C-alpha cells in the first residue's frame, strides 16, 4: 500500500512547491488540484466561490483515482489544500478506507511570509495575478483552521520557507 502525502498551509505557503519536492523524494505520483480544475473547467473559475463549487465536483473522481494508485503500492502526493477540519477529514477517510498511511505536512508561515510569496508568484505566473492578491488572501484565510490533536493526523510541521 502506498502512502498519501498532503499539505496544510495558508495561500502562498508553498504547498505546490513542496508537493513537487515531496513527490521527488518519495518516488510518488503528484496530483494537482489546479491541474484537474483547469483541465475540467477551463476559464470557469473567476471567484473563490467558483473554486469551492467546482473543486467539490471533482473530489469523488479524485478519491477513487488516488485510492487505486495507493492500492498498487505507489505513493501519492496531493497538491490539494487540507486547510479545514473537513478537508483534512476527507484525506484521512480516503486513506482509512484502504488501510493506507498518510502524512500531512503543515506549512507554518506567517501572513507576511505568505503575502511575500504571493507577490513573487504574481510576477512568475502573471496569469494568476487576478486571483493572487492580498484581498483574496485575506478572504481565503478567514476559512483556515489550524490542525488539532483530535484529528488523528500523522503530521510533520515546517516553519519558514525552508525548501
Q: What's the topology here?
A:
Elements: E1 3-8, H1 15-25, E2 28-32, H2 33-40, H3 48-71, E3 75-81, H4 85-96, E4 101-108, H5 111-124, H6 134-141, E5 155-159
Parallel strand pairs: 1-3, 1-4, 2-3, 4-5
Classify the beta-strand content into a percent band.
15-25%
Architecture, CATH level 2?
3-Layer(aba) Sandwich
In terms of structural class, how would the helical and strand content be classed? alpha/beta
Strand order of the largest sheet: 2-3-1-4-5
Radius of gyration: 15 Å
Shape annotation: globular
Percentage of residues assigned to helices: 40-55%
Main sheet attributes: strand count, strand direction, barrel closure: 5 strands, parallel
Protein name: ATP-binding protein
Keywords: ATP-binding, Nucleotide-binding
Organism: Bowmanella yangjiangensis
InterPro entries: P-loop_NTPase
Summed up:
With 163 residues, this protein is an alpha/beta fold.
Description:
It is a single chain. With 163 residues, the chain is of the alpha/beta class. The chain has one domain (3-159): Rossmann fold (3-Layer(aba) Sandwich), CATH 3.40.50.300. It is built from six helices and five strands, in the order E-H-E-H-H-E-H-E-H-H-E. The protein has a five-stranded parallel β-sheet with strand order 2-3-1-4-5, sandwiched between helices. It starts with a strand and ends with a strand. The model has no long low-confidence stretch (mean pLDDT 92). InterPro entries: P-loop_NTPase.
Amino acid at each position: 500500500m502506498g502512502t498519501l502525502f498532503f499539505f496544510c498551509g495558508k495561500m502562498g505557503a508553498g504547498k505546490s512547491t513542496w508537493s513537487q519536492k515531496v513527490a521527488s523524494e518519495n518516488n510518488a505520483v503528484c496530483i494537482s488540484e489546479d491541474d484537474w480544475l483547469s483541465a475540467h473547467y477551463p476559464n470557469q473559475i473567476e471567484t473563490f466561490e467558483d473554486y469551492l463549487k467546482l473543486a467539490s465536483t471533482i473530489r469523488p473522481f479524485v478519491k477513487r483515482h488516488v485510492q487505486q494508485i495507493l492500492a498498487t503500492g505507489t505513493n501519492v502526493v496531493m497538491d490539494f489544500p487540507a486547510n479545514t477540519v473537513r478537508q483534512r477529514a476527507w484525506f484521512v477517510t480516503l486513506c482509512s478506507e484502504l488501510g493506507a498511511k498518510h502524512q500531512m505536512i503543515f506549512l507554518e508561515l506567517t501572513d507576511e511570509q505568505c503575502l511575500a510569496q504571493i507577490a513573487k508568484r504574481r510576477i512568475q505566473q502573471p496569469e494568476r495575478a487576478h486571483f493572487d492578491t492580498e484581498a483574496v488572501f485575506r478572504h481565503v484565510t478567514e476559512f483556515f483552521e489550524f490542525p488539532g490533536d483530535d484529528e488523528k493526523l500523522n503530521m510533520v510541521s515546517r516553519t519558514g520557507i525552508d525548501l
